[in-house]
Amino acid sequence: MFFNLPTLLTWARIVAIPLVVGVFYLDLETSLQNLLATVLFIVVALTDWADGYLARRLNMTSSFGAFLDPVADKFLICAALVVLVHEQRLDSFVALIIIGREIAISALREWMAQIGASRSVAVHMLGKLKTTVQMIAIPFLLYDAVLFGLIDTRLWGTVLIVVAAALTIWSMVYYLQKALPEIRARVR
Fold it and tell me: Contact 73/87 with Cβ under 8 angstroms?
């Protein structure tokens, strides 16, 4: 199942990340860069939903796909956060919270899998909510303009990314609490 349709969509998400970042290196008007980056990010983010839906619908789930999907999400989100910090649309501390959590929880999950306790840190709804809020906040920050003459995307993107950072901390604490009994048992 290395190259089925859902996994190919996940690979496409990873391959498209340089395109989202690369838009900001093109000699284009800033508003056009923002629009292109936003559209690319949204299209790429939608493949996250599509690959999971297709994997379940077509009965093409695989352990490799289950591994690759969150990796692709983390690459996409981290790359976008770095761009937003570079473009001065996101505070580096907020980006550090989100990226640091991703590294910490990935390491925790790897260690828990090695000791046979991966079920205690299985994906929880809180983590999915965090990812959803991030996937909404980031396009707002990439667009960085008033949408439909009504929505200040920088303001709303900033509010949502702060909410995402709070959910990031909350979900990290949740996963650490779930893992703590296993950690304590192994440290002794």
Answer: no
